[in-house]
Amino acid sequence: MSLLEKLHRRAANSGLITKAITSLPKLSKLFTIVGILWLCVYLPAEGNFRNTYFSENALMPNQAYSYFRETEWNIVRGYRSEITKIINDTDIRNTVVSDWLNDIVGVKTAIHHNSRYGDTLYGILNAQRGDGTEAMVLAAPWQNSEGDLNTSGVSVAIALLRFFSRWPVWSKNIILVLSDNSNVALRNWVEAYHTSLDLTGGSIEASIVLDYPGTSDYIDFIELYYTGLNGDLPNLDLVNVAVSVIEHEGLKVSLNGIKNFQARDFQARLETLLLGVEKMALAGVGEPIMGHECFSGWRIQSVTVKAKGDKGPADVTTFGRIVEASFRSVNNLLEKFHQSFFFYILLAPKWFISIASYLPAAIFISISYALASLNAIVNNEFSSLPMSSTHNIQALLLLGCCLIFTFVLSRGFSLVICNRGNEHTYNALMTSVLLGSQLFLSNLKSLTKLIIKPELGYRLKCFAYLFFSVVLTSLLVLNFSLSYVISILAFPMTLLVSSNSILKNKVFLIISNPFISTFIATSLIKNTLQWNIFCQLVEAWKDLGCFTWFVICIGWYTPWLMVALSDCNETLNKIEHKSNINKQE
Amino acid sequence: MVFPATKLITLVALCVIVFIDICLASPSSLVGIESQNEIKYPFEEKLTLEPLPNNFLFASFQFLLASNDFLINKKNIDPSKFTHYTVFPKSISPILEQTDTKKLSLRFTHGLWDSKSWGKLPHNGYNSGGSGVEIWGLIEARNNTDAMSKWNQLTNQLSGLFCASIDFIDSSKTTFPSNSDVFLNNLESIPMTDPLENSLFLMRGSLANEPICTENLTPFIKLLPNREKSGIASLLDGHKVFDSFWNSMSLEVDTICSDDGICHYVLEILVETVLNVPQLLSRNKNPIPKPSTSDELRCDRSKNTDEVQCFPLPEKSNYDYHLSDLFGKKVNGNNLLSETYSKVCMVSASAENWKIFIKIGDDYFSTSDNCYNLNVDSPIDFFIETEDSSDVSVREHAPVHVSRSLTGYSQDRGGLRISFWNPSVDKNIDVVYFESLPWFMQPYLSSLSLESDANTINDELGEIIKDTYFLPAIDRKRPSHIEFQLNVPANTTITMSYQFDKPLLKYAEYPPDANHGFEIESAFIAVKGWSSDSHKKGREEIYFLRTPTLLLSLSTPDFSMPYNVIILTSTVMAMIFGMIFNMMTKRFITVQKADEIASKSKIRQLVGKLKNLKRVAS
Predict the structure, then answer these.
(1) What is the pLDDT of residues A321-330, one digit of tens each?
(2) Which parts of the chain span the membrane according to its record (chain B) (predicted)?
C-alpha cells in the first residue's frame, strides 16, 4: 500500500497525470504502434511461441499401422478411371456413385437435392460396434475451390470408404460427402444435416475435406487449411493430428498454402503468421472456400487436406493413409474435442502462439481508440460540461440514428447487390455507386452547408471512438484477425483533428472509410481491383453465415459516419487552437 | 407329491396348452409328461438360422423354460411346503416373488437393425430393446409409491444378477406407460395375489448405450439348466456373439395361472445376432483386414481393368462354410436335460439355393425341411452351402420406418425431429409413439409441428395426431413422458418436430467423461393393425420398433475452473483485507504532517547524520 501511495504522490508531484492527459493523442498513436509491433515483431521472435503438443491423450496418432496401400492403389485407380468418365456429367454422377456405395457392406446412401446450390450425395458407414451417435465426415467435393475437378480426391474418398467398411474398429460412423462444390453446396448439406435430413448418423465430431484435383499418381507435399468462418478455428488437437500424420508419412506440410513452407527463420514465421491472420480476416470473403469452412458454427472440428504436385515422393495411397490414420486417431476419442486450444495462431506446423500471447496486440489498438475517445472529451474547453448536457444527449441520439442508418444500409444494399446473379458489370456499378457515395460523405464539409456546434463535434467523436473500441474489444475474442485488421485500417479516423488542414482531414476520412478501405485493402492483397468484394461480403452472409459484412457496416461504418459528421465544423479550428494556446500558457 | 394325481394331470395339460399358445413360432410343444411321478423338465431349445441380404446371417438361439407350480395366493401357502426347482433358474423366482413382479422383460440390444434391407425385426420387434438395456415390469402394488419401491428393489437385484448398471434406473428414468393395452396384451388374465387391495403397474426404464459385452452374456448362459456344456448354448461365445452388426439378448418371464390360483413361470431367453459371413470368414484367415493380394482381387472385367487398376466387384455370392467357422466352436451334442431334442433349423425361401447339412464325425446328412433334431451326444457341426446368396427369403417389410435426430447447434436449446415413413401403398397405419426424455431435456409441446411430403394431406395434418399423453418432467425426479397416437397415411412421410431447452446441471451431476455428451434413450414405436393377415392376434398384431439413440451435448463446465475461481477470489479477498486492515490500523493525517513526522523518525535522522558525515568527509 505504502508503495502505491508513494508512487501516486510521486506522480502527482511531477504532474504526470496532466502531462498524460495533454499527450493523449500521442499515447493513442503509441498504443497502435505497440499493437502492430507486438504482432509483427514480438510474436514471431524466438521464445514467444511454443511447440504444439497433444493435449488429449486418447488421440494417440500414428500408433496404429496404416494399411491403405498395396492393392488398394489398384482400386483407387479403378475408381478413378470410372470417375473420369462421369465426373463432367452432373446429372448422373451422383446416382452412379450411389450405386457403387450401396455395394459396400453397411453403407446407406441418400442424395440431398438443392436446386439453388447443387446436389450432394452422402453415404453413411454405420460403425459396426459403435453406438451410432457420433460421426466423422470425409468430404470430397466434385469441384474444388479453384474450379478444378477433384477426380483423385473423390476416388480416394470412395476407395477409403470401401476400405474402412472392412475394419471392425470404428466407434463412430463415417459419413462420405460428395457435394457439387466445396462452398455453398457443402455448406447447404451441413445445414440440412442439422435440420432436415432423414438419413443421419449422429453428431459430427470432426471432418476432413479432401482436395486432390487431376489424375496424377504422385504428390510432392500437402497443403493444410484450417481457418474457418467468423474466426472459428478447429481444435488445435485436430490440426496437430493432421500435421503429425502427414509428417509421419514423410510429407512436408504447407499451412494455408504458403509458398515458402520449408524455412523456419524469422521471416518465414512472420509470413506464416500474417497469412494466417489474412485468411482468418478474409475467410468467406476474399479467400476461396476450401471446404472445411462449411462446418464452422456447428461445433465440428474440420480441416482441408490438399495434395500438391505430381512428382513424388508420395503417392495416392499416402494421401489415403493420411485420412486413415487421422480417422483412426479421432476414432479413439471418447469425449468431444475439448482439451487443447480453440484460439491460436500457427507460425509453423509445429509452432503456435496461444491466445494469451497474441490477444494483447488487438487489445493495445482498441485501447488506443478508448484513449482517442478520452482525448475528445477532456482535451478541450468543453470538458467541464455536465454529463446530462444537451450535447451529450444529442450525440447519443445521433449515434442511434447512425446505427439505424447503417443497419438499413447493410440490409438494403444486400438486397440491391448480387440480386442479378454474379453479373460483373452490375456489381461493379453498384460498388462504384457505394464508393462514390462514401467519397461524397467524406466531403460533407465542403460540399454541403451542414454545420454543427463544436461541443457536439467533440461529443460525437468521443462516442464514435468509444463505440468502436467496444466493438473491437468484443470482436477480438470471436475473430481476432478481423478485429485486428479493421482496427489498423480504421486508425486514420482518430487522427482527424481540427488543427489539421482540410485536405489532410479529408484524406484521413477517405482512407478510413470502411468501404473504400476494404476495397483498397483487398485489391492490394489480391493485386487486382476487387469490384466484386461487396457482393462477396453479402453472399458470404447469405450463403455461409459469415458476419463480416455487418461488422463493417454496423461496427465500423457507424463510428465513421459520426466522425464524418463531427468534421462538419467551421469554428472548431479556432477554438481548438485557442484551447491549446491556453494550455501552453 | 402333495397334489392329487388327477389334478396334476389337468395342470400339466394346461401347461402344455399354455406353452403351445406362447410358442406359436416353435413347431413343437415343450413337455409331454405321461406319468404323475415323473419329474418333468420343461425345457426346450432351438437355433434358427436365416440368411439375410448382403451375405448377412441371422442366428437366433431360443430357450424356453417353465417352473414348477406354485400358489399365487400367499394366504393359502403351506409354510411347511418346500419349493422345488427343476430347470427353472433358482435366482429368478425369489426376486419376482419378493417384488410381486408378474411379468418381466429384460432386453440387452446393441447395433442397428437395417430394416430397409433386412425387413421386420424378429418376433415383430417384441423381444428387442433400444440400444442399451431396457427393462419392463408388471408389478402388483398398492399404489405408485409402493410400485416404485418394489421396482427399485427389482432393478437393484437384477443389476447384480446381470452385471449391468440396471440399478441406475431410478425414478428419474422410470415411466408408467399409459397405453398398456398396446404394450401388453391380456392384462386382465394376469393373476394377482390380492386383487382387492392391489392393482397392476406397468413400469419401464432404460439405459441408453449401456455397453453390452461378455459379462452380460455369461449371466444369461448361467440361467440355462445345462449352461454352455451341451446343446446349442455351447455355441455362445462372447467374442462371436458381439462381433456382429446387431445383437440382442432378452429375457421374458410370464406368470401363467389356472383359474384355481395354481401358477407357474414361463421363461423365454433369446440370444440373437446378425453376422456378416464374408467378414467373419476372412477374419478367420487373417484377423487384420489387410489389403487383398493381387491375385485375390475381384475386379469388374466390364470396366478398365489391368495389372495396375481394378474396379472392385461386390462380395461374391456363392459360399460354403461350416457353422463352426462363424462361432468358433461345434455344437456339443444334444442338451442333456430336455425331453425334446435340441433343434437347429435353417429358414429360407429357396431350398434349392440354400442347403444345410449336419456333420457328425466326418459324415454329412441332410433333411428335406432343413431342420435337425440333435440326437447324438458327440460334437456336431453344420455345413451351409449356397450358389446365390442374394436369393434370400423375403422377410415381411417393416410397416413403418422411423428416423429420429437432434437438430440445432446451440448449447441452450435444441430440437428433435422424428420422421415416420409408411412404405405401404394403400394402408394407413396407427402408430403409438412413446418417448421418455431425461429431465434435462425440457420440451415445449407448443413448438410441436408436423410436416408431410405429400402436399395433398397438408390440410389434414391436424388429424394425424389422434391422441396425446404428456407427463412433464420433475427436475431430478421424473422424466418427461410422451405418448402420441398417430395415423400415418399410406406412402407418406410424416415429420414431427419440437424444440427443447437445455438447462444447466449442477457441478456434481455431470457423469464421468462429461464432454462425451448425454445418451438419450431411443424412442419406441408400436404399430397397430399393420398386418394384412387378420388372423393374427394378441402379440402378433402389434409391431414394435425403436429408433437409434441420440447423443445430446449440454454445456459442460471446464472442471478445473473452480480452482481458478478459488485462486482468483482468494487474491481479491486478500487485497481487500490488506486495504481494510491498513485503514483500520493507521492514522489519517495530512501530507505535510506525514512528511514532518517522517523527518523526525530515527532512521531518517540517522540517514541525515550519515549524509552530514559524508559531506564533512568530502
Answers:
(1) 999 999 999 9
(2) 561-583
